[in-house]
Amino acid sequence: MSPPAVADERTLTRRIAALALPALVVLAAEPLYVLVDTAVVGHLGRVPLAAVAVGGTVMSVAVWFGTLMAYGTTGRAARRFGSGDRPAAVAEGVQASWLALAVGALLVLLAQLFASPVARALASDPEAARAAAGWLRIAVLGIPGLLLAAAGNGWMRGVQDTRRPLFFVFGPNVLSAVLCPLLVYTAGWGLTGSAIANVAAQSLSGSLFLWAIIRERAQLRPDPRVIVRQLVLGRDLLIRGAAFQACWLSATAVAARFGVAAVGAHQIGLQLWFFCALALDAVAIAAQSLVGAALGAGDDTSAREVARRVTLVGAIAGVGFAVLAAAGSGIVPTWFTSDQAVHAQAAIVWPWFVGMLPFAGVVYALDGVLIGAGDVGFLRTMTLAAALVGFLPAIWSAYAFNWGLSGVWFGLALFMLIRLVFIVIRWRGARWAVLGATR
């Protein structure tokens, strides 16, 4: 390989790292704050802890909407940016922000109306349900800020600015992590203090992104045509996300049929999987930005080179996680529980968990490539097919034939394998690489 090509490859790898590493911090900020909040509230007793668990489950729906909004906005803004039209890329952020405010207001209204019945449905204990409803009615006031931050992350990633989001998300979450124990313990507000700290972090973060887009001096008027196109993109991502949720819920439901130790080990494995997915998503975000920009610039060659490089980076990251997970097989489960029965079940899960990680690195990277290319219709159909044809039959067969956790995680591995095959075939074809500022 000639020296210039090596230099180009090194430059591209540095660009991927420059986008992925700040994105990783942003992705990790919210989960880390939730851990701090849970630890603080946990010392108030079982009822407040149960209330935050129930309320947090409901709030995760808003986080899910925010993720979809960020991903959809990144690809569209990146194409505009790549075509040399930065104001149009920022305009995508303006319209996404209007959509964020509208969806946020709707979710706040629905939560005020239905907090109590939803909490009662999720919590079997009446006292915990009442506490959860009270926490939720306050915490949802931060949803508009949360969604504004998601929209802001989307367009800033599209214009390849990942430094400002780092400060706009991480800073408020650190501030709120300090504020939470002060309000809960020092001020004596208990569970209410936890909810207010959540609202403070999300509202401040959303305000910073709003301030940034106003400073761009863009046209701030809502454009229904652009918002509708964003909704269509979001619809496909929403359906895809619903397929994932159905798979995770089914896996947990079937694991629970095999006993308390089995579902405990499954939960450990699943949460570790989500943590690894969070890190691998940072590579996918870099792919969204760089692929979208290359296609927007009409440069098919560069888009394919970015796709090849991020796939390699994703595979290396997946192998790295697999090596760490394999090395910690006898140690990591003990961080979560001292129950020997759970440890025994975790030993069944672990080979599946480790074996899936290298393939996950490739799949997540290529997910980012196709999202950046705007090829979300294919991702939607592929994910539904993998769930309906592969995962769900496998998981319920595991229950019917009493295959235990091996059957559950075989279903998850089959889900990953089907996605890998379809997405690699798509990547190697030409249909995803549509050139131009819009798709």
How does this model look, in words?
- It comes from Actinoplanes friuliensis DSM 7358.
- The chain crosses the membrane at residues 16-36, 48-72, 93-115, 135-155, 167-189, 195-214, 237-260, 272-298, 310-336, 348-366, 378-401, 407-425.
- It is found in: Cell membrane.
- GO terms for molecular function: antiporter activity; xenobiotic transmembrane transporter activity.
- InterPro entries: DinF-like (IPR044644), MATE_fam (IPR002528), MdtK-like (IPR048279).
- This protein has 439 residues and is mainly α.
- The protein has 2 domains: 3-222, no CATH class; 234-428, no CATH class.
- Helices cover 86% and strands 0% of the residues.
- The chain has 14 helices and no strands.
- It has helices at 3-42, 46-82, 86-122, 126-139, 143-158, 163-186, 191-215, 224-256, 260-296, 300-327, 332-336, 340-372, 376-400, 404-428.
- α4 packs parallel to α7.
- The longest helix has 40 residues, at 3-42.
- The radius of gyration is 22 Å and the shape is globular.
- It starts with a helix and ends in an 11-residue tail after the last helix.
- Residues 1-7 have low confidence and may be disordered.
